[in-house]
Specification:
The complex is a heterotrimer.
Chain A: H1 2-37, H2 56-65, H3 67-98, H4 104-116, H5 123-132, H6 139-143, H7 149-159, H8 164-172, H9 177-188, H10 190-206, H11 209-214, H12 223-233, H13 238-258, H14 260-273
Helix pairs in contact in A: 1-13, 2-13, 3-7, 3-10, 3-12, 4-7, 10-14, 12-13
Chain B: H1 2-36, E1 39-40, E2 48-49, H2 53-60, H3 62-96, H4 100-114, H5 117-127, H6 134-141, H7 153-181, H8 185-193, H9 198-209, H10 211-226, H11 230-235, H12 247-256, H13 261-289
Antiparallel strand pairs in B: 1-2
Helix pairs in contact in B: 1-13, 2-13, 3-7, 3-10, 3-12, 4-7, 10-13, 12-13
Chain C: H1 2-19, E1 52-58, H2 68-75, H3 77-82, E2 85-91, H4 97-107, E3 113-116, H5 118-126, H6 139-144, E4 152-153, E5 156-157, E6 160-165, E7 168-173, H7 174-179, H8 189-202, E8 207-210, H9 221-224, H10 226-231, H11 249-263, H12 277-285, E9 289-295, H13 296-304, E10 309-312, E11 322-323, E12 325-331, H14 338-348, H15 351-360, H16 380-385, E13 390-391, H17 399-414, H18 420-435
Parallel strand pairs in C: 1-2, 1-3, 8-9, 11-13
Antiparallel strand pairs in C: 3-12, 4-5, 6-12, 7-9, 7-10
Helix pairs in contact in C: 17-18
Classes of the chains: A mainly alpha, B mainly alpha, C alpha/beta.
Chain lengths: 274, 290, 437
């Protein structure tokens, strides 16, 4: 018995070490980012003078690069995207899952095809359309492309397991269609809505190529976009670039710290029901 | 009858907002891409019809050929690796570490997921700098040679692959973990009674039960891999030479640096065709085993 | 969820009201541009209270602390007041220049006056996006400006050069060179090879000659390749600009020279394939690099880092030659206020403002006679005596594709995948195909 438990113990310790190394490997780059952001350096080495660490880079970044505006833009776009996506996608999913109408299956298959198209393929035409609609450099232009078929697909899967009888019963009781949707359907699909919101948030906040193309006015730049220009302009001060990067990184990170459980559960749910 | 009609009407109503947006911003653009692919178009002046010229150019274009090759290699390496890695780690965590430590591991691995690809690419390009990056400094410390990570054909593509895996493992890990938790404990117990060791349990119980989730992970992973752009743009710019240039990057350069929207559309269609074919193949493969 | 939803909605509403922004608003919009054009002479029309809007796009030259935007706004405020102009200055980062102009111009939210560099100008001229300046340039201007010829493209004066300088020079860390017994920066190709070999032997831990082959932007060719091409007597484009002129023996000589530096003499190491410009600068600052070709602006900063440096403008083979930037101001064709835009351009390039620009933001040689030399003292002789060898790029439409292919092929060559002949012939062939459109 003793020999066995010691052997198990050794394996266990190896596993623990391995896993800890992996976790460390995941976190270390961000620690590096943080430390570098506090330095004034034009070189990447680890010759860190701990008494020279300060927040100068942060104040420079914020003051000189208008990052607060970019932050505001990212926030508006992301929050609106999450909200709109949740509403519009759940409505569409409800229509596809629970309503019988001619062309239901056909239209949904079209949706599936649009899922296969990467955003970059439609980049140019969407840009042209936005230009014709005079929407360049506007918030809707940044928000709309994020609302795609993925949410509909995700929610529809989940909705199929919603018992029809429940809805029928409510209808018989005299409940109006919209009240059924709002009071019964939405609360039941809450888990997948959380999942979709998490996904939309990450996608929207980190979106790069689309804001790059559509928001040429630097007043409309999102935070992610602004950071990428840092690397090009004044990049010999690596500390400055890292400070900007940290600022861009913090909002999703803080959100994640507080809503960790929901983040992870949300993603998990999408896997089970997907 | 009337109720059915009423329901149908509601159906249209509910899908209307989504359908309108998708039509305008997904479907019409595809048709436009098809149209532009037969033209010369610099966006400022009207497109001029050029027939199959773009398609012919694409056949011999070294940039397109390299992009295709790189995108394929990237996908073929990244998707299986991240799938297997996340599955294995999920399995280990689910069976042995359902505790604070396991939670910590999961949380840590998820942090790369929430960060932007641009940030990740920038960070890693610093870490992998040949002379001064800390990865090489570390290697030198333990007596190994410094590696020219972003400077040779092989290692540059490898670096991009590894960073991509590093970023996404946490996401798939969570999905697999939840899936494993759903597998009835009873299966494992009877497996143990039959004398199966943990590797056999993984192979004969865990993996088959995870099939539908694996399908989701592989499909998502594949689509994302084909779309790789941000990471390469920031880490290597497509170089050295054409070692890391990808299809989306070529599309982007062609459209926005060469001002050739027509030709860029042609390449976009090529990408679309690939994804459709590969997704269909994957669907068939997995459906067989359902 | 409901709770979250309502919190978020309230938050969004608050934000929207705070930012005073309705979704359809276009921040830097075209529609409010006044169509009441004011002739340049009646600048004190006091009855007309509405101001003319002018938009100016400039790239960043300053440091993290010196603000380009406030520099231009402050120094142009007199111009703005005197001409009743509302001036909006937008600082456009270097990286995504072409996209910004493209989308800006097509959406009508582009600038009135903007800064462009040679590689992109011809494409925009061909698109009809740039307004010729001939009618706005007086005889007096022609006598004052030194480099108008560099803006004379396709038979018209399309640009007003504002920055001519920042030559790519061969810089040496004298302390490191002295350690190996070398007293001077090499001046010929053979001297470079000899110096490099000595450095490799005597100080093996030092990088003899650093080149940023990992720099993504095609502008890297300006310091990586073109100097040697010109030194060998070669040219980049044929006279009719129908293809790259690199199928010449001179081009092969230059290309072979670089290839040999890498593979025959081992003076350029494999690591160079990963170096960006910033990596080279970082290594210079760390005193790990003995020699490199770098732009004047960054060379001058070496002194601040305490590096004991010296330079030669260029190596000499059949002749001297190195790259010098010739970037310029342009006026967009869809500007509503062309007279005023022209006036703005001339004000910006006037001696007063250029002097301040050179002192406060970045140093470059004067572009007109009404300015003294305000660049770094070290470079004065070079600009005075070597003008013929300081070369600018030709203005060729569609050059991006040609340069991109050339750069990638040269990188492949430096990685050992292509021979010099192949790298050149592939590039020439590719350029023939794409430039024939």
């Amino acid at each position: 018995m003793n020999k066995n438990t010691r052997k198990i113990s050794l394996n266990y310790m190896i596993l623990v070490t391995l896993l800890m190394l992996i976790a460390l490997f995941a976190i270390t780059p961000f620690a590096y980012m943080l430390i570098t952001s506090l330095r004034q350096t034009s070189s990447l080495d680890l010759d860190i003078q701990f008494n020279a660490l300060d927040f100068t880079n942060y104040s420079r970044v914020v003051k000189n690069f208008n990052l607060l505006t970019n932050f505001k833009n990212s926030l508006i776009v992301t929050v609106c995207s999450c909200l709109l996506n949740a509403i519009i996608a759940s409505m569409a999913a409800y229509g596809f899952a629970k309503k019988n109408f001619p062309g239901n299956k056909f239209l949904f298959n079209i949706y599936l095809i649009t899922l296969m198209i990467p955003g970059q393929v439609t980049l140019i035409p969407v840009f042209t359309i936005m230009r014709k609609l005079n929407m360049l450099n506007t918030y809707p232009a940044l928000i709309i492309p994020i609302l795609n078929a993925f949410g509909v697909f995700l929610i529809k899967q989940f909705m199929e397991s919603l018992p029809d009888e429940l809805l029928e019963a409510a209808r018989i009781d005299g409940c109006s269609e919209f009240r059924i949707f709002y009071l019964i359907v939405i609360p039941i699909i809450k888990p997948v809505l959380v999942s979709l919101t998490v996904f939309t948030f990450i996608t929207s906040w980190n979106d790069f190529i689309w804001p790059l193309v559509i928001a040429t006015d630097s007043k409309m730049h999102t935070l992610t976009l602004a950071i990428s220009t840092l690397k090009g302009s004044y990049s010999t001060n690596y500390g400055l670039v890292m400070a900007g990067s940290t600022i861009a990184f913090l909002p999703p990170f803080i959100l994640y710290i507080f809503l960790q459980k929901q983040f992870i559960e949300g993603i998990a749910m999408s896997g089970i029901k997907g | 009858m009337k109720n059915q009609q009423k329901q149908a009407l509601y159906g249209y109503l509910y899908i209307a907002p989504s359908l309108i947006l998708i039509s305008i911003f997904s479907l019409i653009p595809i048709l436009m891409t098809l149209y532009f692919s037969f033209t010369d178009y610099n966006i400022i002046q009207a497109p001029t019809f050029t027939g199959l010229k773009n398609y012919i150019r694409m056949l011999g274009d070294p940039f397109v050929v390299s992009s295709m090759k790189n995108t394929f290699i990237f996908t073929l390496f990244v998707v299986p690796t991240q799938t297997i890695l996340s599955m294995v780690i999920a399995s280990v965590l689910a069976h042995k570490f359902q505790n604070k430590l396991g939670g910590f591991i999961k949380s840590s691995l998820f942090i790369p997921v929430i960060s932007s690809t641009i940030l990740v690419g920038t960070l890693w390009s610093f870490l992998l700098a040949t002379d001064t990056g800390i990865i090489n400094t570390f290697l030198a410390l333990i007596g190994l040679d410094k590696v020219n990570w972003l400077g040779t054909k092989f290692t540059s593509l490898l670096s991009v692959c590894l960073v991509s895996i590093w970023k996404n493992v946490g996401y798939f890990l969570v999905i697999f973990y939840a899936g494993i938790m759903e597998i009835p404990k009873m299966l494992y117990e009877s497996g143990q009674v039959d004398g199966a060791n943990k590797y056999q349990q993984f192979w004969y119980i865990t993996m088959p039960m995870l099939k539908p989730i694996t399908f989701l992970v592989v499909t998502l992973g594949t689509i994302w891999s084909f779309q790789i752009f941000d990471l390469v743009y920031v880490m290597t710019g497509g170089g050295p030479g054409r070692s890391t240039i990808t299809l989306v990057m070529t599309i982007y350069n062609t459209a926005f640096k060469e001002f050739s929207m027509g030709y860029a559309s042609t390449i976009s269609l090529l990408l679309l065709v690939f994804i459709v074919i590969i997704s269909s193949i994957q669907k068939l493969l997995f459906k067989d085993n359902y | 969820m409901k709770k979250y939803l309502s919190i978020i909605m309230v938050g969004v509403l608050l934000l929207l009201t705070l930012t005073n922004c309705t979704p359809k608003e276009v921040p830097s919009d075209d529609t409010s541009k006044e169509t009441t054009s004011q002739s340049a002479s009646s600048s004190t029309a006091s009855q007309d209270k509405e101001k003319t809007e002018l938009v100016l796009w400039m790239p960043p030259f300053g440091t993290e602390d010196a603000l380009d935007k406030s520099f231009w706004e402050d120094n142009l405020s007199d111009f703005a007041t005197q001409n009743n102009v509302e001036l909006t200055v937008e600082i456009v980062p270097w990286g995504n220049y072409e996209e910004k102009y493209l989308t800006g111009i097509t959406s009508g939210s582009g600038p009135d006056v903007g800064y462009m560099y040679i590689e992109m100008i011809s494409d925009f001229i061909n698109m009809g996006a740039i307004e010729p300046l001939d009618s706005y340039i007086t005889q007096e201007d022609r006598e004052n400006y030194l480099y108008l010829d560099k803006g004379f493209i396709q038979g018209q004066q399309y640009t007003l050069p504002i920055i001519v300088g920042n030559a790519r020079i061969l810089v040496g860390n004298m302390d490191l060179l002295n350690d190996a017994g070398i007293t001077e920066v090499p001046t010929t190709w053979d001297e470079l090879i000899a110096t490099g070999k000595i450095l490799r032997e005597k100080t093996p831990d030092i990088i003899p000659f650093a080149q940023p082959w990992g720099e993504p932007a095609i502008g890297a060719l300006n310091s990586l390749y073109y100097p040697y091409l010109w030194q060998a007597g070669g040219e980049i484009f044929t006279d009719d600009a129908s293809k790259l002129a690199l199928d010449s023996p001179e081009a092969l000589e230059a290309t072979q020279f670089l290839y040999d530096l890498r593979f025959k003499h081992d003076i350029i190491s494999e690591n160079a394939m990963s170096y960006t410009n910033n990596d080279v600068i970082a290594l210079l600052n760390d005193e790990k690099v003995a020699l490199t070709v770098i732009d004047c602006t960054n060379a001058a900063k070496l002194g601040d880092q305490g590096i004991n440096w010296d330079f030669v403008p260029f190596l000499t083979n059949k002749s001297g030659g190195t790259f010098v930037a010739a970037d310029a101001l342009i006026m967009t064709s869809n500007s509503d206020n062309k007279e005023l835009a022209a006036k703005l351009m001339k004000t910006m390039t006037s001696g007063d403002i250029m002097t301040k620009f050179h002192h406060e933001l970045a140093m470059f040689p004067p572009v007109a006679k009404d300015e003294e030399y305000n660049d770094h003292a070290e470079f004065k002789d070079m600009y005075a005596n070597n003008a013929a060898d300081l070369r600018t790029l030709p203005a060729v439409a569609g050059s991006f594709k040609a340069y991109d292919s050339l750069y990638k092929n040269l990188q492949l060559m430096m990685m050992g995948e292509l021979s010099p002949e192949e790298a050149l012939s592939y590039s020439v062939e590719y350029s023939e195909n794409v430039l024939s459109n």
